[in-house]
Amino acid sequence: MPTTKFDVRTFILHEATSDDLNEIIDNIKQRRSVLNAQASVTFNKNDRVYFDAGRRGIVKGIITGFTRSKVLLAATTGINWRVSPGALKPWDGK
What we know:
The protein is an alpha+beta fold and 94 residues long. It contains two helices and five strands. It has helices at residues 5-14, 18-40; strands at 48-52, 58-66, 71-75, 80-83, 89-90. It has a five-stranded antiparallel beta sheet with strand order 4-3-2-1-5, with no helix packed on it. It is elongated.
């Protein structure tokens, strides 16, 4: 069994079977769910936050609500976003 991060990467890239990969993917999805749930409880409605929207740049806004898996955000540009809680960072409003 791999013991270092390098060994794990080597195993995944070169030795893992399809069943191994499916199990790894399921574990990653579960871990992301846990991380998003933890991030979600750190924010409240009307908090000012921002996130990196890739080519669209940094988006700043105010939290307007929550769904089961996303945070609803009213951006300063007037566009509404549904964002994964793990992508959000607190914004001081400046």
